[in-house]
């Protein structure tokens, strides 16, 4: 019995509509595969590049305990990158190709990692706001329609949630400290608030991919829905911490039962996405160097595997 392309497409649509998973060996539209590779690769690259801004502080953490925590967190991020590259490989694309596309600028990574981390308080702020935004965005992805991506996200979210707590705990400790430490926290929050809101992507009416990705069950919420959820979740946490979020338009709207907030600077967002943020060149240069410096390890691993196969 031969199955026609139309029947395969109908089966795919019905599986997605039922909320069941699409698995690597199932038939899928080429555009679905391409969208997943784009999103998962961008996500994997973000985890790998995302090690750099905090890695900056490993050698200068103020105590052995803080250093051990930071090392573990940065290692977790390397692990997240690996789960995601593996999920992407099930779609028929090799990790080598994905790395080449990152290094040549053909594939993106999250805008947030193109901002500098000049203060130790940034380690806490990244945990609280950046990992907080990541969790908001990624918890719904545990139910994404592509099996390997959803399963990778379950473990990643558990670890992200721990990262968020450690950031909040670090900031709480600093807020209980000296006037100077409190000022460091506020200054860091002032720098990271708007870039954290930009992590959710452009507004829905300027997001070319959201409609189709929602229809395919790849994304479960729109960019604006998740941004709103993040703001609503973060405002009481800021109050408990004793910091001010740098948005004069931020206020509770009792009719909407949600916070109103100001508009991020979308020109800045697109400039960063297109490669012109404060640290884009530095991040990619360092990644390129690390890739070149690691060539001998890859060569040795291949030689070892070939030896074993003889
Ligand atoms: N940065 O139509 P749209 C983390 C691009 S957390 C850069 O809305 P989509 C971590 C987008 O790719 C960060 N580019 O796209 C946390 C598209 O360009 P192309 C990673 C962005 O895909 C702590 C164009 O703008 N998280 O890893 O429907 C420590 C139009 O956008 C950004 C994920 O990747 C941005 N912020 O929605 C360490 C989560 N936003 O491809 C690590 C999974 C948009 O057409 N990804 N663009 O050239 C997603 O949920 C979605 O891909 C997005 C964007 C919400 C990010």
What does this structure look like?
- The chain is mainly alpha-helical.
- It is 66% helix and 2% strand.
- The protein contains 13 helices and two strands.
- Strands 1-2 form a two-stranded antiparallel ribbon.
- Strand 1 and strand 2 (258-260) form a beta hairpin.
- Helix 2 (30-49) runs antiparallel to helix 4 (64-89), helix 4 (64-89) runs antiparallel to helix 7 (147-175) and helix 6 packs antiparallel against helix 7 (147-175).
- The model has no long low-confidence stretch (mean pLDDT 96).
- It binds benzoyl coenzyme A (BYC).
- Benzoyl coenzyme A binds next to helix 2, helix 6 and helix 9.
**Main sheet?**
2 strands, antiparallel
Radius of gyration: 21 Å
Q: What coarse outline follows from CA principal-axis ratios? A: globular
What is the residue-mean pLDDT, rounded to a whole number?
96
**N- to C-terminal distance:** 42 Å
Query: DSSP strand (E) fraction?
Result: under 5%
Structural class: mainly alpha
* Overall strand count: 2
What is the count of helical runs?
13
The hetero molecules present are:
benzoyl coenzyme A
The poorly predicted ranges are none
């Amino acid at each position: 019995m031969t199955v026609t392309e139309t029947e395969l497409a109908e089966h795919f649509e019905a599986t997605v509509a039922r909320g069941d998973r699409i698995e690597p060996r199932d038939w899928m539209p080429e555009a679905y595969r391409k969208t997943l590779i784009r999103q998962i690769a961008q996500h994997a690259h973000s985890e790998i590049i995302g090690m750099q801004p905090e890695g900056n502080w490993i050698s200068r953490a103020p105590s052995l305990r803080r250093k051990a925590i930071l090392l573990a967190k940065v290692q977790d991020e390397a692990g997240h990158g690996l789960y995601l590259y593996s999920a992407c490989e099930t779609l028929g694309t090799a990790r080598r190709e994905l790395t080449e596309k990152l290094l040549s600028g053909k594939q993106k990574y999250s805008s947030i990692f193109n901002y500098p981390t000049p203060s130790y308080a940034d380690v806490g702020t990244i945990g609280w706001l950046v990992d907080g935004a990541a969790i908001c965005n990624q918890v719904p992805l545990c139910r994404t329609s592509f099996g390997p991506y959803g399963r990778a996200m379950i473990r990643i979210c558990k670890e992200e949630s721990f990262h968020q707590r450690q950031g909040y705990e670090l900031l709480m400790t600093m807020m209980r400290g000296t006037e100077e430490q409190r000022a460091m926290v506020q200054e860091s929050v002032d720098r990271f608030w708007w870039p954290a809101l930009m992590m959710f992507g452009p507004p829905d009416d300027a997001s070319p991919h959201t409609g189709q990705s929602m229809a395919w069950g790849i994304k479960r919420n729109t960019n604006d829905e998740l941004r709103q959820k993040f703001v609503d979740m973060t405002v009481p946490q800021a109050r408990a911490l004793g910091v001010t979020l740098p948005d004069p338009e931020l206020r509770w709207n009792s009719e909407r039962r949600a916070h109103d907030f100001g508009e991020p600077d979308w020109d800045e967002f697109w400039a960063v996405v297109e490669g012109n943020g404060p640290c884009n060149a530095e991040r990619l240069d360092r990644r390129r160097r690390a890739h070149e410096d690691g060539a001998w390890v890859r060569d040795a691993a291949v030689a070892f595997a070939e030896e074993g196969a003889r």
